[in-house]
Every structure is written in C-alpha cells, then in structure tokens.
Amino acid sequence: MVFDLDDTLFDHSGAAAHGLGAWLATFHGPATPELTAAWFELQNRHFAAWRDGLVSMAEQRRRRIDGLFALLGRPAPDPAGLDALWAEYAAAYRTGWRRFDDAEAALALVAAAGLRTGILTNGPDELQNDKIATIGLIGRVGPVVTAESLGCAKPDPRAYAGLCAALGLDPASVLYVGDDHELDVVAARAAGLRAVHLDRRGTGPAGERDRIASLHELAAHLEQS
Q: One GO molecular function term (predicted)?
C-alpha cells in the first residue's frame, strides 16, 4: 500500500495558501483569491519544469517568486534576492504543515490489514522527509521514495519501478493512492500498479472507476488487495 504525500497525507495546498497569506502580509497586503490562484499556477508550471529536468530546484523557486512579483507590479530582485524571498515564504509555509484528519485512520486501516506501506513523492528528499517527521508519520510509513533519490519523477515509469524495487514487490501487487489523477493514477496504472484516485475536491474525471473523496473510503479498495 503506497501513498503519495502532498495533498494526500500532507495538506500541502492548505499550508501553501497559509504561507502565502502570512508572507504577503509582511510586505504587500492580503492574499486575494486571485493572487492565491496565481501562486498555485506558478507552482504547477515551474515545479513541472523541475520535475521534467529542465531547471534546478533553486531556479524553479526563483521563477515562482519572480512571477509573483511581476503580478504585484514590483521589480524583479536579483537571484540572491529571490532566494532570500523564497526563504521567507518557506518559513511561513512551514508553519502551516499539517496532516489530513483522515491520514491516521487510513494508516490504522492499512496496519490492521497487515499490509506494508510506502510513499512515492515528487519532491526533494530532505524537504519531504522533514514534512513526514513534522506531521508525526516518521517510522509509520516507509520506505519513502522521492524523485530526488530516484533521479526521476512521476510520471516517468522508472519512478514506479524504483518504488516497487524499494518495496521488493511486483508492480501488480502494489496499490497506489494519490490526489493527482495523471501522475498518481493514469501513470501508475501504465507502470503496472493498481491505483485509487483521492479526489478530495470532487474535480477529477467523472468516469474514474476507483475514486474516493476521503481516505476514510479506502477500506473497500483494501478488501480487493
């Protein structure tokens, strides 16, 4: 039983919105719904560039801050200034780190079923493991397989192969649960895993056969394992 981390066990979107609001308040003003939506669009665009190997982690972070400043009508700082601003945002983001309320129930359910656990996450090793420790899941889920440690990221088939190798399991015996339909469901199935879409916001494809709105609904899928 393998989980994605961000927006599956860990409330990344909530923490990011909280962090943006707290950070913007120190030099600009309130984070309007429009600015918050733009921040997430910048995240998705530039993180995808890192995921695809086009830019470094530091550069994608700089581009996100640069893009936000352009929207605010502020001059773009130099790279050192962008890095300093990112550090301020990251500190505010960290104050919002929480796990979802249903994460505990899901892990208890998996443990009761006698299933092994793991995490496959698109992110840097240190950051993702820090999140896991902060939200109280260290030692409760593992192995933790990151894009950085693998040298490739979802949806690259090698990421799922690396996960299965870390677990010592055949892909067909692994059930993967995540919030991103393309990365955590479509690509996982293409790599031979079984997958369940965690669609917390109800915005996923209507035709998805294995969809849950909460991790509380995971039990029926474990029975099929």
A: hydrolase activity
Secondary structure letter of residue 53 according to DSSP: T
Q: pTM for this one?
A: 0.94
Domain final residue, candidates 94, 119, 136: 94
* Residue owning tokens 């993967």: 176
Q: Count structural domains, the chain.
A: 2
Q: Are residues 145 and 193 in the same domain?
A: yes
Q: Which sign, positive or negative, has the C-alpha torsion 15, 17, 20, 24?
A: negative
Q: Which residue, of 50, 68, 94, is where some domain finishes? A: 94
For 138-148, write each residue's pLDDT tens digit. 989 989 999 99
Cross-sheet strand order for the sheet of 175-178:
144-146, 118-121, 2-3, 175-178, 194-198, 211-212
Backbone φ, ψ for residue 200 (5° rounding): -65, -35
Pairing mode, if any, of strands 211-212 and 144-146?
Answer: unpaired
Domain range enclosing 208: 2-11+98-222
One-letter amino acid for residue 146 of the chain: T
Q: How far is the C-alpha of 224 from the C-alpha of 196, rounded, in Å? A: 12
CA distances (Å), 198 to each of 8, 145, 149, 154, 155, in order? Answer: 7, 19, 25, 16, 17
